[in-house]
Design a protein that fits this description.
By secondary structure, the chain is of the alpha/beta class. The protein is built from 12 helices and 9 strands. It has helices at 6-26, 34-63, 69-72, 87-92, 166-169, 174-183, 217-232, 249-260, 291-294, 297-303, 321-330, 349-366, and strands at residues 79-84, 118-124, 131-137, 154-158, 191-195, 242-247, 267-271, 309-315, 336-342. The chain has a 9-stranded mixed beta sheet with strand order 1-9-8-7-6-4-5-3-2, sandwiched between helices.
């Protein structure tokens, strides 16, 4: 019986109700002796345990955290990996609106925390007018005198909901994994940028632009943040040196960047994400708004695939699987797709974290701007 299936969920909820009804019927009869008192306590504990298990089963079924018993027990998930198309070609081809080559500016604003690898900013976007956090993790040699003319590729990384940029430095452990990838020669030294994608923090933005008066989050992450990075850091300008990476809703955001903003991002990686917005706090537009069609990436992939190299990890038992499967099936040139389908894995942190080193290695092996230079 599958952990995320209706039969198992219904069984656990039914057992919880049965235990409750039995307790209500039996408890009055268990009064008096110490043995009956122990039985009453045991019955109360049983009812509470069954209620907790029923709630946990329902939550797991709704969110797809664990998809099978082996997954719950910590077994490594089985997976199917497939590569379609040429990633280097997809990321390196010229597209309309792509940033041209430009000389390195003669000066940049001073770092707010000189000598620190992690720089934290609060920035107001000139186009979106949103004010949010931008965390930047710098390469180890960024401030060294010998690297003063060195440019670096950029990863713009999107967190989940609820969440903040700190998700990448804490649970995802991205700085350590990034340093391991660069020090081992699997990927070039890279500027890692984690912007806030929930403004306000309690609203699930899905990185979309809402109706007038609502947050213009797509503009913030696709225009304002890249502009900020180019003005403040020695970033490579070409799209084959820019990648969008995200987990959960951040995975949808990364895919959105590839579909709508290939002039900036030549590669994307979607970890446990999806391809249609799934608002936890309600859509930021009125019912029937034409804006909704803009964010159906399945339909767009069928009609107008972008020249982007994509890396997509998804659990086959995930509630998002049908749409993601349709998205992968619709992918064709000039898009390149590497898909990692977890046959018995769910939707949770440890799966995304364990995939992150593979994403960095894929960037270093397949995307021209991230390949090590010897």
């Amino acid at each position: 019986m599958e952990l995320t299936g209706l039969p198992f969920t219904a069984t656990m909820i039914s057992l919880a109700f049965i235990c409750l009804f039995v307790a209500i019927w039996v408890m009055p009869q268990l009064a008096g002796t110490w043995l009956k008192a122990i039985s009453r306590a045991g019955l109360q504990i049983l009812v509470n345990v069954m209620v907790i298990l029923a709630v946990a089963t329902y939550m797991n079924s709704s969110n797809g955290w664990y998809s099978s018993w082996s997954d719950l027990m910590g077994a490594a998930p089985k997976e199917q990996v497939k590569q379609d198309g040429d990633a280097a070609k997809a990321a390196g081809v010229q597209v309309p609106g792509a940033a041209p080559a430009a000389p390195v500016p003669t000066s940049y604003p001073p770092l707010p925390q000189p000598g620190e690898r992690l720089q934290k900013y609060t920035y107001t976007g000139t186009e979106s007018k949103l004010t949010g956090q931008i965390w930047v993790y710098l390469p180890h040699d960024y401030e060294m005198p010998e690297a003063k003319d060195k440019r670096y590729p950029v990863i713009e990384a999107f967190h989940g909901f609820p969440g903040s940029p700190s998700g990448w430095t804490s649970k995802m452990n991205a700085p350590v994994l990034l340093d391991e990838a660069s020090s081992s020669g699997r990927m070039r030294d890279t500027i890692f940028v984690a912007p806030q994608i929930t403004i306000p923090s309690d609203v699930d933005s899905e990185c979309v632009n809402g109706d007038p008066g609502k947050a213009q989050m797509e503009t913030w992450v696709s225009k304002d943040v890249p502009t900020f990075i180019r003005k403040h850091f020695r970033a490579e300008p070409h799209r084959d040196s820019w990648a969008a990476v995200g987990y959960s809703i951040g995975g949808y955001c990364a895919t959105l960047m590839g579909m709508h903003h290939s002039e900036t991002f030549g590669a994307i990686a979607n970890l446990g994400g999806y391809v249609k917005p799934d608002f936890a706090t309600g859509a930021p537009w009125a019912a029937g708004s034409p804006r909704a069609a803009r964010y159906d990436l399945v339909a767009q992939m069928k009609n107008k695939p972008p020249a982007v190299a994509m890396y997509l990890q998804v659990g086959k038992q995930s509630p998002f699987w049908p749409d993601v499967e349709a998205f992968m099936g619709a992918t064709h040139a000039p898009t390149s797709m590497k898909s990692v389908v977890l046959l018995d894995g769910g939707h949770r942190w440890d799966l995304w974290q364990s995939e992150t080193p593979k994403v960095f290695a894929w960037l270093g092996q397949s995307i021209p701007g991230f390949k090590p230079r010897h």
